[in-house]
TrEMBL record:
Coiled coil: none annotated. Keywords: Toxin-antitoxin system. Pfam families: TacA1. InterPro entries: Ribbon_hlx_hlx (IPR010985), TacA_1-like (IPR014795). It comes from Symmachiella dynata. Belongs to the TacA antitoxin family. Gene3D superfamilies: Single helix bin (1.20.5.780). PANTHER family: ABC-TYPE TRANSPORT SYSTEM (PTHR35401:SF2), COPG FAMILY HELIX-TURN-HELIX PROTEIN-RELATED-RELATED (PTHR35401). The keyword Lipid biosynthesis does not apply. GO terms for biological process: regulation of DNA-templated transcription. This is DUF1778 domain-containing protein.
Length: 94
């Protein structure tokens, strides 16, 4: 039994140069896709990559070493803001 794929309801409309539209149509045809399928697939991939890149913090080796050195500092004492945050957390968990 065939299942229906979810119906797309959202739309994106934009203008682009005619030569770029022709390239997109040609690329879609090479893949056996409609222009809409090609555009949606590539836009989704670009969106996911952008979100991933913007969600990750990359440190230089020097920054990484400093970060770990600060974590390893056993003599460090919590400041007032950290103490207050810990108290608030404890109260919320009770």
């Amino acid at each position: 039994m065939a299942t229906d794929s979810p119906k797309s309801e959202a739309r994106i409309n934009f203008r682009l140069p005619a030569d770029l539209k022709q390239q997109i149509e040609q690329a879609a045809a090479h893949l056996g896709q409609s222009v809409s399928e090609f555009a949606a697939s590539n836009l989704a991939q670009a969106a996911q990559e952008t979100i991933r890149e913007q969600s990750v913090t990359q440190l230089t080796n020097q920054d990484r070493d400093l970060f770990f050195a600060l974590l390893d500092n056993v003599d460090a004492q919590p400041n007032d803001a950290l103490k207050t945050a810990a108290q608030n957390y404890t109260q919320q968990m009770e």
